[in-house]
Design goal:
Layout (H helix, E strand, L loop, with lengths): L9 H8 L11 E2 L21 E3 L2 H9 L5 E3 L3 H8 L4 H10 L3 E3 L10 E2 L2 H12 L4 E4 L2 H5 L1 H9 L3 E3 L15 H11 L2 E4 L4 H8 L3 E4 L5 E2 L8 H8 L10 H12 L7 H7 L7
Parallel strand pairs: 1-2, 2-3, 4-6, 4-8, 6-7, 8-9
Antiparallel strand pairs: 5-10
Length: 278
């Protein structure tokens, strides 16, 4: 089981949907985040003959064009989480009036690539744009535990959180990550970032208003194949505004997260090679 299959609790969510008490090894590679390439981290070493499971047919076409084979569309783990954690009907009716404030997901790096940019300038722009609304800043665990970065946003009066660790090499993955994220997204009226990413589509999928603005910052040693900010702007110009119209945001979330694709529990067990599991 490739260690990235564990990221954000994805394998655990899929196992729960499949009716299993824990996640066996997925016999293949599961897309762990949204991107505009083949769905996987650049440089992933794929073992020959093992399938690659992606969220949408669009990603599958890009992956095949990039030379990958055995590509199968299964939808996103987020979709299966929503199926298992539906919002109570009473909450849905009141959501527009009970949601409050803005949650921000700043573009982040990871342990091997750091971000270059001014967090202080971004914080000032957020406050100016969001006005008096309460702001929650959700940081990648590395930034959250790095006190100087966290304290910048705290000094601006933001509530600063992290959903947990995604894990690395099979260690430290937090299976409750996406559950925490779902809870936060359902509490907030707006979800914003300085770049497109999974969190914005997740927010749109649960009825939050989304927006993209601010210094996009720069990822150290970024990979040209991903296209950077220029590719995002070219492909999704309608999403790069302070407040994206709800119907536009919801349509993009449905398309990018594969929300119209649902494998049954039995199909997931078959597809992931879990047919012999209890």
């Amino acid at each position: 089981m490739h260690h990235a299959n564990h990221f954000y609790g994805h394998a655990a969510i899929m196992a729960r949907w499949a009716g299993l008490s824990e996640a066996p090894a997925i016999r293949g590679y599961l897309q762990h985040g949204w991107n505009l390439h083949d769905g996987f981290a650049v440089g992933t070493a794929f073992a020959p003959g093992y399938p690659k499971f992606v969220w949408t047919e669009v990603v599958a076409r890009r992956a095949r064009a990039a030379g990958l084979n055995h590509v199968e569309v299964v939808s996103s783990p987020w979709h299966y989480l929503l199926l298992q954690e539906p919002e109570p009907e009473s909450d849905q009716e009141e959501s527009d009036t009970t949601r409050e404030g803005t949650i921000v997901y700043p573009f982040h790096g990871w342990e091997g690539q750091l971000i270059q940019g001014s967090h202080d300038a971004y914080a000032r722009e957020l406050r100016e744009t969001e006005g008096d609304a309460p702001i929650t800043m959700c940081l990648y665990w590395n930034d959250f535990e790095h006190a100087p970065t966290r304290e910048i946003y705290e000094r601006h009066g933001f509530r600063v959180i992290s959903h947990g660790r995604r894990g690395f090499m099979g260690v430290g993955h937090d299976t409750e990550f996406l559950y925490r994220q779902l809870g936060e997204l359902r509490r907030h009226r707006r979800v914003v970032s300085n770049r497109l990413g999974s969190a914005l589509f997740y927010g749109a999928s649960v009825g939050a208003e989304i927006g993209v603005y601010g210094d996009p910052m720069v990822l150290g040693n970024d990979h040209a194949v991903l296209g950077g900010m220029a590719k995002q702007l070219r492909l999704f110009p309608e999403l790069h505004q302070l407040a994206v119209p709800r119907e536009v945001a919801e349509r993009a979330a449905r398309e990018e997260l594969g929300l119209d694709i649902t494998l049954s529990p039995a199909e997931v067990r078959e597809t992931f090679g879990w047919v012999d599991e209890d």
